[in-house]
Specification:
Layout: H1 5-20, H2 32-39, H3 44-58, H4 70-75, H5 85-103, H6 108-125, H7 135-144, H8 149-171, H9 183-198, E1 206-209, H10 216-224, H11 238-244, E2 249-255, E3 265-272, H12 279-283, E4 294-302, H13 313-327, E5 335-338, E6 340-341, H14 345-353, H15 357-367, H16 371-378, H17 382-394, H18 405-412, E7 416-421, H19 428-434, E8 438-443, H20 448-458, H21 465-476
Parallel strand pairs: 4-5
Antiparallel strand pairs: 1-2, 2-3, 3-4, 5-8, 6-8, 7-8
Helix pairs in contact: 1-3, 5-6, 5-8, 6-8, 8-9, 14-15
GO molecular function: malonyl-CoA decarboxylase activity
Protein name: Malonyl-CoA decarboxylase C-terminal domain-containing protein
GO biological process, one term: fatty acid biosynthetic process
């Protein structure tokens, strides 16, 4: 069948466009510089599939808007040719209300494809083909329509999928993987983060202890997304879960009242009579219940990738402090500490070893050994590694934040550095991260707010006197 003149022009222009955009070796960008070039690329496969299924319809389209090329015009109008404002809002409602229903049991690529088609449609309907302006969506849900529980839940689900997709592409070794929409997808991800933040009000959020009666849907989200101390068997987790929430232990879970089946964050706590110096002492049951006076926060996890840059950690910690003060012996003077990892310490030491051949030999010997042999080797290399740990925990990035991400998290929330613990956790995971070292941070409720201000405004590291004394001893040794 013969194509009309318009259809032939579309096909010719598209062929030229595909030749111009060589994305054979493109990958999802990880830096701002590459983001700009990435944003101009489009998915060859997506364009071809759309054109093949719609080329016959395009021959009857007589819209000759001179402001756009044939490729721009038809590529952006393929998904939905109705550009009225009213239909734009209906489209938004349909997408955000039905995302979970429309993507259930579908692979990640299909979910991203649905989001990409929505973005193409939105660009067409707002007549903005050069840069994507999401202000109308933000305005739509800020002024005209209340964000319903379903919509808020879908904001999180959509962003979960986008973040997973971004991570997948960044970690992919496949150089010829086609990309989809580039910067538009990233801008949309940022918008969703903004909308989630606006609807996660501090006073609305609440925490409650994890209980087996909560149901599998909630428990599975908590089990599967535990980041600091992953569950050994995520299928048969009951015994391990009971062990983590029995006797003097608990897990506080952060919820939004509109999403009662969607736990947002989890915080595992052990009530102790003293500050533990490692996982072994953390597990010891207090001999006298009356001696318990310390709440130890030993694992805090965000349960959704869609909560990236949505800072809820300080909210959960503040609510945990209030929960313990309200629900346990009020005659005690409670103190609050963490038992935390140093997740990038070993990487830091390996980087230092590039300029220190002796240190490099130590690391090579350590890494060549089995786990039991590594543990036996630790005391022999303590005099080398422990001073580096004190140096590392005070190391700052450009901009004043600490190099250690966990340290940065706790200091900005008002904690102070309390103590570094040698052989705090000799599990395989912690040996690989930090040569088995762990650290305590202290949350002193009297100075917590001021500590946070000092760190966030002036990059001042709050340090307990115990830590300062140990540091001075190291320096004068």
């Amino acid at each position: 069948m013969m194509f009309s003149r318009n259809a032939r022009n579309i096909k010719h222009s598209t062929t030229c466009l595909l030749k111009h955009f060589d994305i054979k070796h493109s990958r999802l960008f990880s830096t701002t510089t590459t983001a700009k070039s990435f944003a101009s690329r489009v998915d060859k496969i997506l364009i071809k599939n759309i054109l093949n299924s719609n080329i016959s319809n395009s021959s009857s389209n007589n819209n000759n808007n001179s402001n756009f090329s044939y490729v721009q015009k038809h590529y952006t109008t393929i998904v939905n040719n109705n550009s009225s404002s009213n239909n734009n809002n209906i489209s938004m409602n349909d997408f955000f209300n039905n995302y979970q229903q429309n993507t259930i049991d579908k692979p990640l690529e299909s979910k991203i494809d649905l989001t990409s088609k929505f973005l193409l449609q939105f660009k067409n309907q707002t007549n903005n083909n050069d840069s994507w302006d999401y202000s109308s969506i933000e305005s739509f849900y800020s002024k005209d329509n209340q964000v319903t529980p379903t919509v808020l839940s879908n904001f999180l689900l959509i962003r979960d999928d986008i973040e997973k997709y971004i991570l997948l592409k960044m970690n992919s070794n496949t150089k010829d993987t086609p990309t989809i929409l580039g910067q538009d997808l990233i801008l949309f991800d940022t918008l969703l983060g903004t909308l989630i933040k606006k609807n996660m009000k501090v006073d609305d959020l609440y925490c409650t202890p994890l209980q087996l009666s909560m149901g599998k849907e909630i428990i599975h989200q908590i089990i599967n997304n535990e980041a600091v101390h992953p569950y050994q068997d995520k299928q048969n987790y009951i015994d391990e879960l009971k062990q983590r929430i029995s006797k003097n232990k608990m897990c506080l879970v952060l919820f939004h009242p509109s999403m009662k089946n969607t736990p947002l964050m989890s915080l595992y706590i052990v009530l102790k009579e003293k500050v533990p110096d490692g996982m072994e002492s953390l597990e010891e049951i207090p001999k006298q219940e009356s001696d318990i006076c310390c709440a130890i926060f030993y694992s805090i996890s965000s349960l959704h990738k869609g909560l990236k840059n949505v800072d809820l950690g300080h909210i959960l910690i503040s609510k945990a402090l209030n929960y313990i003060q309200s629900n346990f012996d009020k005659n005690h003077t409670w103190t609050y500490f963490t038992l935390s990892p140093l997740p990038t310490f070993k990487s830091y030491v390996k980087k230092l070893s590039n300029k220190d051949s002796n240190l490099q030999k130590v690391i090579q010997e350590f890494e060549s050994k089995a786990q039991s042999e590594k543990i036996n080797m630790l005391d022999r290399i303590r005099s080398i590694l422990e001073p580096l740990a004190y140096q590392y925990i005070q190391e700052k990035r450009k901009g004043g934040k600490t190099l250690d991400p966990v340290c940065n998290f706790h200091l900005k929330n008002g904690a102070n550095i309390y103590r570094i613990n040698w052989k705090g956790d000799t599990s395989e995971k912690r040996l690989e991260e930090s040569f088995g070292m762990m650290i305590n941070y202290e949350y002193d409720t009297k100075i917590k707010t001021q500590n946070s201000i000092n760190y966030k405004t002036n990059h001042i590291l709050s340090e307990n006197q115990l830590f300062k004394d140990k540091l001075n001893k190291m320096l004068n040794h």
